[in-house]
Amino acid sequence: MSVVGVDFGYQSSVIAAAGRGGVDVILNGGSNRLNPSMVGFDECRRVGEQATSGQSSNLKNTIKGMKRLVGLAFDDPRAQKEMKWYPGVTFAPFERSSGGTPSIGVKIHAGDSEKETVVPIEMVAGMMLRHMGDIAAAKAAEGTSTPASELFPQDWVVAIPNYFTDAQRRGLQAGCEIVGIKGVLRFMHENTATALSYGIFKDLKKEFDAEKPTNVMFIDMGASAYTVSIATFIPGQLIVKSAQCDSELGGRDFDMAVATWIASGFEQKFGSKLSGKPLDKPKTYLKILAAAEAAKKTLSPVGVKEARINLEMLMDDFDFSTSLKVEEYEAICQPLLDRLAGPIQKALEEAKLTSADLTAVEIVGGSTRIGCVKRKLLEILNIENLSTTMNADESVARGAALQSAILSPRFKVLPYDIQEAQPFPIKISWEGGDEDTSSVTMFNRGLTFPIVRRVTLKRGGPFSVKASYEDVEQYGLPAAAEEIATINIDNPTTADNKVRVNIKQDIHGILVISSAQMVEEIEDPEAEQPAAGGEAAADAPAEDGEGEKKKKIKKTNLTCSISRPLDWSADEINKYYEIEVAMANADRIVIETSNMRNELESYIYGMRDKISSDSQLGLFGTPEEKAAFAEKRDAMENWLYEDGFDATKKVYAEKLAELKALGDPIEKRQAESQERPGVVSSLQSSLESYTAWVNESQANEKYEHVTDEEREKVRSKCDEISAWMYEKLDQQAGMSLDEDPVLTVHSIRMKHKELADVCSPVINKPKPKPKPKEEPQKETPPTPEPSEDGKKEEEVPMEGVETEEKTEEKMQTD
């Protein structure tokens, strides 16, 4: 599971792994596919499901939905609005050592320290992603002897919202680096991952036609955002035509609408008896929000008319019960439903399509299960059915895993072209020179990336180029988010140098400086060399134009640097990486200590009944041993809940060893008593088998190759082992159960092995192979000696034959 894709969601996250058999969503330790996107800080960090279980008791130190805060400035209006969704959590400006605009930090109490620590939100996001990797590693390690730490995923694709800005992408990238995730191959838009998951397998089945492209609309409503995208499919290619978002419309907004209705009813009922507003109290807020979500889910299926809401001890010891009818629910949510049409209409206009041009409308995301949302979508698109062929919760993670497999060198995947779409237009502006200022839109909205664009300027001396988003208000971005980067170029102070600045938008959608070059036209020295022919050539009259000097282009790389708001330096990443390592070690120690304490506690309680019961260990210990164990056990139990409550792992291990030194001999006697009959029976069976073979093999032709000495060797060993066994059995029969046995299971097994080592080679001795028959030699008649003339006559043709053979070889060689 070294190649994975992650859907890093607001409410929950999903991880999928690419393998030879396809893509599989990985289950966590609780056999669940969805992992709550939540990190809690206590004596150790608790992530995912563990954080959920302790949220109500550790509200101030439990952070969720961190992806919507990553890469934002603390005073960004989007951040200030988002922080209101997390009651009880204390946010603070996070100051970087390099200065600049503060980003978002969270005040926490970590470990045993009572001092508040500010942790950057990017690091918290990284912790959640690291937890997803740990889930994959643990799954990969199942059934193997390899530690899970050695099977941590190597290649990642992380799905992000389409509306993420450059700063948000860089923030998430820094979070991954802080927690040691180095192999992020791509940050992929969630809508593109969904489209890839939909299209790649259909492409393999040859369902797309190059002459007639397939247009599919994907509607994704999750917990916090609503995205509508249109993708076009042709064989071997996916093209994102349009993607429109409402980043403030999701399932949580429907929950909040119902929660506000519940709180209003509660206030009307109890009025002045309440100590404050219900939604202003963090724990009450969470209770009401959970009840609202449950009511939403109850009313989503067709045919459900109302949902009962019962809240015990909601606030100030007051209970509250009410019913929400489906008509009231839809009226409450009508303002939210009205916002569904805008992104759909914009997406169709941008793609230059109508709903009739769509082959299918696929809905994904947990909030598309809301009944009134489905009905509203059908009404807006004027279609009969919405397609639900994809898993609403897993499609993004599956698409990300497929992209990871395509990009990873560990897999060989058929080429598949994915044309991603740039969400915001980016302009490049410059100033300097003769007091001129200008700009150009270099990366248009919808432009595919990664891509490199170039701007050529004439400048004398150092100058800067700025990249910023264009028309930010049109795309719902605050003015503070307009700036992307400033590129400073160290240009020589000569007049009007021609400088080419190459700016790249990489595979993550992050803007980087590719290169800056000074371009000069210089005289070509080779063109000034005299022509061949010397003076005669020089005396020849020149043709028109020959007197002009030739020039060539010289390119000189210039030093350039890039500064970006909310950027993370390498030193800062390394600093927080060390903090992360320290936290991980502290977590490991806490977990190992807790496990050792639980082991000691389990042993104390487990042995209490066993050692006093005659049906278990009672018969295998002497009265003195049982009394000593009971005394030690009771003292250990008192220590565990008093002075030893906060002891270290080493102390717990030592205490457990002390107790086991008294209990292990008793347990060993029981184990010996239970296992001894079986191993004795096995040895007896072997003795009988070998003895029977000795008696039968003498008259069996099959064993005629076995000598009498070898048979006697087997018989003698059987008699020896048999005598030893019965002697020890007699001794053991005269002993009580609370004595250490003289006939141990180990000794029986060793004797069994000794018997097999002697007898098996004799019994399995192979027959010798029969000797091959010798053929009688034929007598060769003597050769008469030829006369001298005869010899000469024979020599001539022999030489001729040799000559012919040599000639033939030469011919073959040629």
From TrEMBL:
GO cellular component: cytosol; nucleus
Cytoplasm is among the record's keywords: no
Keyword Chaperone: no
Pfam family, one: HSP70
Superkingdom per UniProt: Eukaryota
Renumbered residue ranges of the record's region Disordered: 523-554, 757-814
Positions with biased composition (Basic and acidic residues): 803-814
Biased composition (Low complexity): 528-540
The name this protein goes by in its record: Heat shock protein 110kDa
Source species: Fistulifera solaris (Oleaginous diatom)
Lineage: Eukaryota, Sar, Stramenopiles, Ochrophyta, Bacillariophyta
